[in-house]
Amino acid sequence: MARVTVEDCIDKVDNRFELVLLASHRARQISQGAPITVDRDKDKNPVVALREIADETLSPDDLKEDLIHSLQKHVEVDEPEQEAGSMISNAVAAAKGDDEDELPETLTFDQMSEEELLAGIEGLVPPEKSDDY
């Protein structure tokens, strides 16, 4: 089979830079022992990877997903967040330790309505201008 060129692959993967990333990732997979889907014909791994992309024996979307997965170092797992009250009670329990007499049983916070907050902000006096700034 004749050598594969970028023009043979560019209609499968639109971006040349993405094509290079996908082909290099696939070439690394082949060098690590992944089975190839086309005849090797004494070609090196990057050429085999490009031929696989050009012949559409591998899906570029699957290669892209596998590349992204291989580059991830930390995968976040979506877990429900704790309620604010339970977080505070957990913090209080952790802070208590052996000294249970020093902290109150429950923490209370001042509640302020939006109207009260706006009234307080409107009542603020701007600082006087000085030469410092």
From TrEMBL:
EC number: 2.7.7.6
Keywords: DNA-directed RNA polymerase, Nucleotidyltransferase, Transcription, Transferase
Family matches, as SMART domains: RNA_pol_Rpb6
InterPro entries found in the cross-reference section: DNA-dir_RNA_pol_omega (IPR003716), Pol_omega/Rpo6/RPB6 (IPR006110), RPB6/omega-like_sf (IPR036161)
GO annotations of cellular component type: DNA-directed RNA polymerase complex
Tree of life domain: Bacteria
GO molecular function: DNA binding; DNA-directed RNA polymerase activity
One GO term (biological process): DNA-templated transcription
Catalysed conversion reaction: RNA(n) + a ribonucleoside 5'-triphosphate = RNA(n+1) + diphosphate
Pfam families: RNA_pol_Rpb6
SUPFAM superfamilies to which the protein is assigned, alphabetical: RPB6/omega subunit-like
Biological role: Promotes RNA polymerase assembly. Latches the N- and C-terminal regions of the beta' subunit thereby facilitating its interaction with the beta and alpha subunits.
NCBIfam families with a match to the protein in the record: rpoZ
Subunit structure: The RNAP catalytic core consists of 2 alpha, 1 beta, 1 beta' and 1 omega subunit. When a sigma factor is associated with the core the holoenzyme is formed, which can initiate transcription.
Similarity annotation: Belongs to the RNA polymerase subunit omega family.
Protein name as catalogued: DNA-directed RNA polymerase subunit omega
Source species: Ciceribacter sichuanensis
Gene expressing this chain: rpoZ
